[in-house]
# Entry
Amino acid sequence: MPVSSRWKVDLFPVLLVGLALLTTSLATPTAHAAEATPANGAVRTLIIDTDPGADDVIALLFAMASPQELKIQALTTVAGNVPLAKTSRNARLAREWAKRPDIPVYAGAPRPLLRTPIYAADIHGSEGITGVKVYEPSQPLAEGNAVDYLIRTLRAAPDRSVTLAMLGPETNLALALTQAPDITRGLRELVLMGGAHFNGGNITPTAEFNVFADPHADEIVLKSGVPITMLPLDVTHKILTSPERIAKLRNIGNQAGKTVADILDAYVQHDMQYYGLTGGPVHDATVIAYLLQPSLFRGRQVNVEVDSREGVGFGQTVTDWYGGLKRPANVNWISEGDAQGFFDLLTQRISRLP
Ligand code: BDR
Ligand code: CA
# Structure
């Protein structure tokens, strides 16, 4: 689809989002900013919102292999890389491959808030994962909608206790915040893969896919007042595979290592060719590495706003790296990461799976 037709706005949900922007703009953007610090070693109560997606599947396996640090309450799915039925199936496949039947999977939003839906089958294949066989997993979805699950769970949670890892378009949380702005009380931190500044975009010259796929949702999330850590393309394009790194995963000798290596072998081809890189990024898995070992990363507290106007800047994260706008910081923007440290940690954790 030509980029120009991708930012068309459907009229149907305009009122809903107008209301959402109004309610969330009442929140204080920096209410928790001082607490936007990385994990301190304690077990995190975690929900993972995701649109699998090859790199999402690797992130999910990585997280589900780390129960000592991450107490995963649920996976919630959203339309993104492929339509919702396929992202939900792929999340259930990851759960099956990790042998974690205890984790429920809730399906959420089937489309973005306002804009025309877009997918990334050119990168992830029409099934959302390439390099491995996909099939219907044995365990079904949990009953109920992901947005209702988020509202219910966050309302019942102790103050600032739940971390939300977000690996796709941010539609589910935006809908939850719109319907129940009080849920911010239960959130400790949002750690999300999205945005681009120094690197430039991967879907337009300025926009990164997850934000471009639903910039109106990102706008609501950025104004929520919850501490936010973003892992943008600026860092994910510095943490690249190599034949040796993939071989180490394959040589673990378990099924999960082979699955991750097979997925990576297929997934990185596009980006290596398109960007002329020596290896490919594993975007969403950096979120899990950050949660497990934040010392692998470096960033800066900055003000980030998203451009949701039609035009060439649509979906761009406007990141005030030098503080020129003098607006309050609302994001811990990660710009540097230890690539070898990332792959060592990923390999160590994947070796714990069947
Ligand atoms: C992001 O877009 C998706 O295609 C990936 O899964 C990742 O979440 C990278 O821009
Ligand atoms: Ca994703």
The two ends are 40 Å apart (CA to CA). Residues 255-275 form the longest helix (21 residues).
